[in-house]
Amino acid sequence: MPRRLALAALLAAAPLAAAQTPEGDGEANAPPFPEYPDFRPGAVAAADQKLYSLALLDLFEVAPAGAGVPARVEGFYRIGTDYNKVYLKAEGEGLVAEGEGGVEAQVLYSRLVTEYFEAQAGLRLDTEFGDGDVRARPQLAVGLEGLAPYFFEVEPALFVSYKGDVSARLEGSYDLLLTQRLVLQPEAEVNLAVQRVEDWGVGTGLNDIEVGLRLRYEIQREVAPYVGVSWLNRFGEAHDIARAEGEPTSEAFVVFGLRLWR
Question: Cα–Cα distance between 21 and 216 in angstroms, integer?
Answer without folding.
Answer: 69
